[in-house]
Amino acid sequence: MIPFSPPDISELEIQEVAETLRSGWITTGPRTKELEKCLAAYIGVDKAVCLNSATAAEELNLRMLGIGEGDEVIVPAYTYTSSAAAAIHVGAKVVFIDSQPGSAEMDYNAMEAAINERTKAIVPVDLGGVVCDYDRVFSVVERKRGLFRPSGNTDLGRRLQKALGRVAVVADCAHALGSVWHGNKAGAIADFSSFSFHAVKNFTTAEGGASTWRSIPGIDDEELYKWFQLYSLHGQSKDALAKTKLGAWEYDIVAPLYKCNMTDIMAAIGLKQLERYEGLLARRREIISRYDAMCDELGVEHIVHSGEDFQSCGHLYITRVPRADDGCRREIITKMAERGVACNVHYKPLPMMTAYKALGWDIKDFPNAYKLYENEITLPLHTKLADEDAEYVMENFKGVLKDVVGGGTFL
């Protein structure tokens, strides 16, 4: 049995969690603060904020910018729900954009055409770990400066929007920790970025996530960090660690805010994951090279994880089977499961989901996203795969494709 994406937990993580439990400090504390420093250094930013999920990180990024009711946020139709749900949580209107033909990235021309005076943020998604074309995104928001009207429902949000003077680029880097684009790591490219440390991610804290941002002229990074802490802990002016200082029991509530902090138990896992991370990425690249050779031999389309100016962290191995429709795709996944190989689909476009259909979206308006979805199969890609496991996946994939779709190759 080959699972789709089990966590890679070693004795190092187990020992660190045990030591955390023995320390008596299990909520947000010294290990969380240490993980924030280590992640910031790894990504190449001044600050990182660890939270309980990527969804919380995405939402707080928008709240930092003061985005809310009456504002619009542009999101690709081809993504997971959290990319859009965060905007809905803050009261903004989501504006979906179709994919480019044959690419999971947004149609940047359609994205540009959708920008108006109400647009406050664009959410590019680094699907599978492959970083978007941020040169194109930033060139668009710069060209559209004349339409931008700073607003913001908080003092900080108004100051941030005024300092940027354009639509904010708020990246969904849930899949992309360690991905590199033009020499910069994901998390240091967009104005604000969010990461997921869920159990299925390359880097995990069981649940968890983080926000990062590029320094913005006129805005103090320490102030931003302070507000992330306030937003993530009820608006409380001191966290539990600060209150341990002698006589420092008293605190204030500056606003009735939210509860989405990371615990030291979660951070303990992350600290050891980060120590091992480059080795984990190297193993993923080995498996990807095997899968690439197989798909190229068969003529099966596949995600491209590296190129002259980019290197993905290799989170997902996405394939698209020529001549297959939705029915064939489902049969292939079922037959692979019968042979003990768990596959998945990334993603069913959001306009196909009940919640988003209820908001008025129709998949017929997103033909490129649907075309990407209807024959997509994601193969297992994780560091628990032995070489013989990868061979088993590939041999069965070849056999099942031949049985279901017919023919030896699609070349």
What's the layout of helices and strands?
Elements: H1 11-23, H2 30-43, E1 48-51, H3 54-64, E2 72-76, H4 81-89, E3 93-97, H5 108-114, E4 119-122, H6 134-143, H7 155-164, E5 168-172, E6 180-181, E7 184-185, E8 192-196, E9 209-213, H8 221-232, H9 264-298, E10 301-302, E11 306-307, E12 310-311, E13 317-320, H10 326-338, H11 354-358, H12 367-374, E14 376-379, H13 387-404
Parallel strand pairs: 2-3, 2-4, 4-5, 5-8
Antiparallel strand pairs: 1-9, 6-7, 6-12, 8-9, 10-13, 11-12, 13-14
Structure, explained:
The chain has 411 residues and is an alpha/beta fold. Helices cover 40% and strands 12% of the residues. The chain has 13 helices and 14 strands. It has helices spanning 11-23, 30-43, 54-64, 81-89, 108-114, 134-143, 155-164, 221-232, 264-298, 326-338, 354-358, 367-374, 387-404; strands at residues 48-51, 72-76, 93-97, 119-122, 168-172, 180-181, 184-185, 192-196, 209-213, 301-302, 306-307, 310-311, 317-320, 376-379. The strands form 3 sheets. A 7-stranded mixed sheet has the order 1-9-8-5-4-2-3, with helices on both faces. The protein has a 4-stranded antiparallel sheet with strand order 7-6-12-11, with no helix packed on it. Helix 1 runs antiparallel to helix 9 (264-298) and helix 10 crosses helix 13 (387-404). It is globular, with a radius of gyration of 22 Å. The two termini are 30 Å apart.
